[in-house]
Amino acid sequence: MGEVMMAALGDVPLFNSPLETGLRALVVLDAFYPRPCTISELTWFDHLVVHTADVEGPSSLHPDLPSRGGELLVRRQLIDEGVHLLLNAGLIALVDGADGVRYVAGEEAPSFIELMEATYSARLKSCAEWLADRFGALPEEELRTVVHQRLGRWTLEFQGEGTLYEPSA
Hints:
By secondary structure, the chain is mainly alpha-helical. It has helices at 2-9, 18-32, 39-50, 71-88, 109-114, 119-135, 140-151, 154-159; strands at 92-97, 100-105. The chain has one domain (17-159).
């Protein structure tokens, strides 16, 4: 399956691509399994899994750049595209319920993730497990509150609600 996926990708860039964010989403969904996640939650988790130190977690996978809050503005579309890429590959499954569309790791996800052995991948898996332990039991509204408190005004912007969250004066 890996060779087929790589051949299909051809010259697709990996850094800041739907493939990169989709694979992170897959690792997060596997860590959170069986809890299904919305695209908004996956967007939050994608940011938090690489910036775990921002929420008193292990050292962050990515550098703590001062403007990292702006990353959220581009993540939602990349997450959406990445999730659909891996949904089409059968690694992510769709759960369509009364509360809307959510995603879970597919049956093949654990064995695919096990093949990811690079140092970055091992750290990503560890951070995703920590994130699931820390935030997995929180309902979406409580998680939204945590994200608002930690990431402030960017939250509603990357949720696609079209307005910025401005803290009250």
